[in-house]
C-alpha cells in the first residue's frame, strides 16, 4: 500500500495550540500552529478559554495547512486527530471537526494518542535525520507528562516509568512562578541557566522507587528555599537569578537522567529518543548527547518544531495507521486520560 500517494490531514487540539498538518507518504508538506497568547496573563492554561480559541482557529488553520501543502481537501485520503490525552473541551473541538470533515468527504477517520504522537514524530521523513531502530527507549517530557516508554514497534509500546504527581514541565513553570518569571517559564529558565552556576545551590532529589518520577516535593523545596533566602535578603532573587535557574535546571535534568540511566541498564537498550515540549530544553539535549560518550547510547532528538504540541506528529501516526488499515468509527469519542 505504501506505493500509493497518500495525503493525510493531521489535527492537534489537546491543550492550547490549534494545529493542522499535511503529510504526503511520510513527508511533511505543511505544519501550521495557532498559539493562544491569552493564557500568559493567567500564568497557565485556562481550559474554557482554550476550547473557545480552538473553535475560532480550527477552520483557518486547516485551510492554511491545505493551502501551504498545495492541495485541496478532496485530495485527502484520511483525517487523523488527537483523541487524547488532554483538556476535554479542547479535544472535543478537534474531534468533532475531524469527524465532520471525514464524514463530509467520505474518507477514513484515524484517532491518535497524543503521547504516541510525541514518540512517533521521530518517523517523519526528514533529510539527514536518522530514525530510531526498534527497540528504543522514549522519554516524553512536557507540561502535562513525564514518561519513559519502551518502544518495540510503532504500536507496541509499554510505559515503564511515569510521574506519580506533577510533570517536569510543571516543575519548570511553578519554579519560574516562584521566581517571578512569566509563563511558560521553561524557556526563560533555560536561557538564564546558561549564564549561571549549576552548583551554586543544592536541591535534594526526590527518592522514588523504580523508574517513576515525582516533582511535587522538588517544587516545595524550591518554594521554601526562596522564602527563607528572601527573608534574609529581600534582593536575593534579583542578585542570584541566573545561579538559581542554573541550579533548578541542573537538579531537574539530574532527576530525568538518573531514571533514564536506570531504564537503559534494566532493559539493556541503548537507543534513546526524546519528545514533548520540554525536550526543547538545551540542558536536556546536552545531557543526552553526553550520554552517548558516557554510556554508549545512540540518541535521537527531533527538530524543535516536532517536539512541542504540533499536528505533524499526529499526521505521521495517521499515516502509519493508514498503512495498517487501522481506522476509527464515526462514534469515536475524545478521552482526557487516554493511556498509551
UniProtKB/TrEMBL annotation:
Family as reported in the entry's similarity comment: Belongs to the KAE1 / TsaD family.
Protein name: tRNA N6-adenosine threonylcarbamoyltransferase
Ligand binding (Fe cation): 114, 118, 309
Lineage: superkingdom: Bacteria
Organism encoding this protein: Algibacter pectinivorans
Keyword Transferase attached: yes
CDD domains on file: ASKHA_NBD_TsaD_bac (cd24133)
Primary role: Required for the formation of a threonylcarbamoyl group on adenosine at position 37 (t(6)A37) in tRNAs that read codons beginning with adenine. Is involved in the transfer of the threonylcarbamoyl moiety of threonylcarbamoyl-AMP (TC-AMP) to the N6 group of A37, together with TsaE and TsaB. TsaD likely plays a direct catalytic role in this reaction.
Amino acid at each position: 500500500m505504501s506505493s500509493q500517494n497518500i495525503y493525510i490531514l493531521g489535527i492537534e487540539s489537546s491543550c492550547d495550540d490549534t494545529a493542522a498538518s499535511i503529510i504526503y507518504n511520510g513527508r511533511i508538506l505543511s505544519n501550521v500552529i495557532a498559539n493562544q497568547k491569552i493564557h500568559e496573563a493567567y500564568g497557565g492554561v485556562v481550559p474554557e478559554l482554550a476550547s473557545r480559541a480552538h473553535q475560532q482557529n480550527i477552520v483557518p488553520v486547516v485551510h492554511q495547512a491545505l493551502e501551504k501543502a498545495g492541495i485541496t481537501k478532496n485530495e485527502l485520503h484520511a483525517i487523523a486527530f488527537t483523541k487524547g490525552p488532554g483538556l476535554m473541551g479542547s479535544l472535543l473541538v478537534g474531534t468533532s471537526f475531524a469527524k465532520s470533515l471525514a464524514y463530509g468527504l467520505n474518507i477514513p477517520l484515524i484517532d491518535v494518542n497524543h503521547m504516541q504522537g510525541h514518540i512517533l514524530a521521530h518517523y517523519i521523513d526528514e533529510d539527514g535525520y536518522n530514525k530510531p531502530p526498534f527497540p528504543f527507549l522514549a522519554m516524553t517530557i512536557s507540561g502535562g507528562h513525564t514518561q519513559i516508554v519502551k518502544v518495540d514497534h510503532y504500536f507496541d509500546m509499554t510505559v515503564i516509568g511515569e510521574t506519580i504527581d506533577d510533570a517536569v514541565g510543571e516543575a519548570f513553570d511553578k519554579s519560574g512562578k516562584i521566581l517571578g518569571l512569566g509563563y511558560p517559564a521553561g524557556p526563560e529558565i533555560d536561557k538564564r541557566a546558561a549564564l549561571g552556576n549549576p552548583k551554586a545551590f543544592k536541591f535534594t532529589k526526590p527518592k522514588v522507587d523504580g523508574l517513576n518520577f515525582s516533582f511535587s516535593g522538588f517544587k516545595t523545596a524550591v518554594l521554601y528555599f526562596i522564602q527563607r533566602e528572601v527573608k534574609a535578603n529581600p534582593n536575593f532573587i534579583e542578585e542570584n537569578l541566573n545561579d538559581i535557574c542554573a541550579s533548578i535546571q541542573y537538579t531537574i535534568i539530574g532527576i530525568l537522567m538518573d531514571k533514564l540511566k536506570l531504564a537503559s541498564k534494566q532493559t539493556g537498550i541503548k537507543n534513546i529518543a526524546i519528545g514533548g515540549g520540554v525536550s526543547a530544553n538545551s540542558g536536556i539535549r546536552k545531557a543526552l548527547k553526553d550520554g552517548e560518550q558516557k554510556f554508549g547510547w545512540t540518541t535521537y532528538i527531533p527538530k524543535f518544531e516536532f517536539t512541542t504540541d504540533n499536528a505533524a506528529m499526529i499526521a505521521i501516526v495517521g499515516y502509519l495507521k493508514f498503512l495498517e488499515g487501522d481506522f476509527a468509527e464515526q462514534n469515536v469519542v475524545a478521552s482526557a486520560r487516554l493511556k498509551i
